[in-house]
């Protein structure tokens, strides 16, 4: 199954949003409301895999430390890769939010108790991300048991 790549970031510009998704249809669902609010000119939608866009952004040093916020709800196997790139793009004090970090609650149970439909590389990627974030001295963490869990990371240096 191919999951959509969603990454929303705000930068130094006056409330400028960069939205990345492999499926433009996802963006277009909300487009009528965005247009009605008169903010469509503030959104830079990029139809692409997020890693390649993040790598492009990092080619220009002026982008480092220039983003305020990122929301990641993408292919779970790349969450750790997103995090490393976002730590370069986010300013100190910036926030990265990762979705689905409870993975159906299975991150807190032994492997043998995990239902078959939650097993696999995505669960392992979420476990790896959670361990990595807990060990990352660059961030302060807050985990919110909302929906399937979100982890909020504040970059402290």
Automatic annotation (TrEMBL):
Keyword Protease (UniProt): no
Alphabetical keyword list: Methyltransferase, S-adenosyl-L-methionine, Transferase
Alphabetized SUPFAM superfamilies for the sequence: S-adenosyl-L-methionine-dependent methyltransferases (SSF53335)
An individual GO BP term: methylation
A Pfam family it matches: Methyltransf_3
PROSITE patterns with a match to the protein in the record: SAM_OMT_I
Cofactor: a divalent metal cation
MF terms in GO: O-methyltransferase activity
Homology family: Belongs to the class I-like SAM-binding methyltransferase superfamily. Cation-dependent O-methyltransferase family.
Protein name: Caffeoyl-CoA O-methyltransferase
